Amino acid sequence: MKQLLIALAALLSFGAQAAELDDAMNKAGCMACHAKDKKIVGPSFKDIAAKYKGQDVVAKLSEKVRKGGAGTFGPVPMAPVGPDKISDADLKSAVESILKS
Which UniProt keywords apply (predicted)? Predict the structure, then answer.
């Protein structure tokens, strides 16, 4: 019973963290152009994860979000997203989450 309660608490904690991350990504505007499994304006999170599978690119992709750019997934540019939109910690968590998609 104790193990079940510990597992439930961990699951609830993970759910709360995921909800906070989703909220941060919504506030930053990520979800206006990206979705988990389909292309909207930008690539899906699954496509991003597939392109960078097995690579240590958290810092590289975080920098790309901060600076913006175009050409990796087509000609549509991505606007830069500053720390006023998403904190460095939330950005790192978001990129790590996307790479696990």
Answer: Electron transport, Heme, Iron, Metal-binding, Signal, Transport
**Residue located via tokens 């597992």:** 7
Residues 29, 85 contacting (CB under 8 angstroms): yes
CA distance 86 to 98: 15
Give CA–CA dist 65/95, Å, rounded.
9
- Residues 14-70 have pLDDT tens digits of 444 567 778 889 999 999 999 999 999 999 999 999 999 999 999 999 999 999 989
Give me the architecture of the 2-99 domain, per CATH. Orthogonal Bundle (1.10)
Domain ranges of the chain: 2-99
Name the β-bridge partners of 34: 39
